[in-house]
Amino acid sequence: MTSLARSLVVAALAVAASTAAAEGGTITGKVESTPAKFLEETVVYLKGLKPAAPQTRSIDQKGMTFIPHLLVVSKGDTVKFLNHDSVDHNVYSPDGEGYTLGTFKHDQERSYTFQQEGAYSQLCSLHPEMLAFIFVAPSGYAAAVDKKGAFTIANVPPGTYQLAVWNSHLKGADKGVTVVAGQTVTQNLVVKR
After folding, report:
1. Pick the CATH number of 53-140 from 3.30.499.10, 2.60.120.10, 2.60.40.420, 2.60.300.12
2. What's the whole-model pTM score?
3. Superfamily (CATH H level) for 1-49+148-193
4. d(Cα 118, Cα 111) in Å, to the nearest integer?
5. Residue range 12-38: average pLDDT?
6. Domain regions of the chain by residue span
7. Among 72, 69, 37, 45, residue whose Cα is nearest residue 193
8. H or E segment at 118?
9. Bridge-based pairing state of the strands 99-104 and 131-137
């Protein structure tokens, strides 16, 4: 191998090592819920990280239902509330700083920017049977669980954090988790009465 070829190989290895060090790790796991009927109203999130750049997310209203039923956003994110129903809706939340977006018709939308962390129930004053949740995490490192309780939080900067869980009706304890660049760590959680 020529000296130029060796230099190129060494440079490529250095770039690969630098890229691996700069990439984040992944946290996966499963949440067990007792009773199980509240499992799909669960969010897993990391504490101790700064909010990412604000983003815009959407929650729709179709068939007299909020879609999705649980939306996870970060502090500073804006949520667009869409109305693809054939009836008027009035979206409000009594939680956090509380807000009312007024009544809006089919194909109209309203927006709200969340400045406080926590859970916000989403209600419609015209249709009291409608309910959804928006969970405002401290940072973008959060995930709603799937129907089986599984979650994945990707691209987490290396470090040690508190992994927390929120559920609409149940409680769970935080757990410490250490994330290593390019690796996956599994951490399971439990929520119960």
Report:
1. 2.60.40.420
2. 0.86
3. Carboxypeptidase-like, regulatory domain (2.60.40.1120)
4. 18
5. 74
6. 1-49+148-193, 53-140
7. 37
8. strand 118-124
9. unpaired
